[in-house]
Amino acid sequence: MYATFLFIHSIIRWFALLGLFFTLATHLQGLLSKRSYNHSDHIIRNIGKGLTELQLLIGFVLYFLLSPTVQSFFRSGISSGDEGLFFGIYHIVMMFVAVAVLSVGNGMTKKAQTDREKFKKTLIFFSVALLLILAAIPWFRPLLRNF
Question: FRET label pair with 132: which of 24, 55, 99, 113, CA 20 to 30 Å apart?
Answer without folding.
Answer: 113
